[in-house]
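**User:** You know discrete backbone vocabularies at least as well as I do. Would you mind producing a protein record, from residues through to fold? Write it directly below this note and I will take it from there.

**Assistant:**
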Amino acid sequence: MECGAGGREYDRGMQRRALAVSIGLLFVAAPAFAQKAKSVEKEGDLEVVTLESGAIAKVYKPKDLRPAEKPGLVVALHGTSMRPDDMLTSGRRLADHRGDVWVACRGGTDIGGGFGWNPKGDVKDVAEMARYAVGAYGCDGKRVVILGFSGGAMIALDVASAGRGAYAGVIACSGPRLAWRGAAIGGMRAVAFLGEKDDQFPLSAEYRTCVLGNHPATCFWVMKDTGHQPPADVYLNDALNFVFDPAEKPSEKNLPASPDHGLAEPKGRPAPLPEFTQIYVAWKSEAAPGVSRDKAAAKATAEELLAKLRKKELTVEAAVAQSDDAGTKAKGGATTAEALQRFGPKVLEKAAAMKPETWELVEGATGYHLLLRPKNPAR
């Protein structure tokens, strides 16, 4: 049995699901149709969102986002007879680790003690909840991943098929193999997880063919000595990293039941803005023995760079390449207030008083400093 239905019943339902997918595509493609929340209620560290359509989700926001950072979004779909909270056990940890908002949607069918999925309506509702979350929580619309377990994996593939341009990738964990055969995710980056001892959807040559035969750009990761259960946090993090690292090639893996490594550094999350960007133009002195220009020449060079930067006739990268400070040059010009102290109090005082996003020129003890303070620096 596959999510309460046999394979032939699943095939007979494909046409009905195709209609649902086309409706989902309409909602994914048209921002004007985005719904508003009917209610948003606090529940501990979660928010319970109910849309005007009746769709419900529980939302966890990462604890420590940088100022003005746009978080990624993971839309998590529980298994049949489960609840949204079941997806947030891993979700909380990964959200804090990666800086992503997790939205755990609730299946539209109450089946007593839990919820199930109805492809005819839930595909549209999940897509709509994803659209709502991007706007309501300021998420990066290019970093939205659909994640599903078991019956939720089937819906995840439907949602991804309906809106291939709207999502960065899809992760389907222990879902029915026929869902992979019917999916139309194109070249979307995807990961299929399956337990080696899954008694609901057994590992087989047919399962592998449904995944890789139809989607050669997808990873197929088998969890050894594992039954019908979600992957460990470490493996989900690895899957998210695959989605966001175009240099990582699709792979087949046999993963140990207990991960043999910790949480990898998250990929896809933008690096924090530096406190300051500095370009240092020195004149000849004991502090800069390799510099031959005198003070007048240093000033002329610095003023020329400043004019080009303000007029955007020169990229920051090209200007940093001319800096005489090897330390910040190696970091793309990034520096901190603490690091600027070594150039004397005048430089630090000027830096502290600067308006954001404006290049300024400051004379220091041994050279001229072109400084830029971003609008929302790292903290």
Remarks:
- The chain has 13 helices and 16 strands.
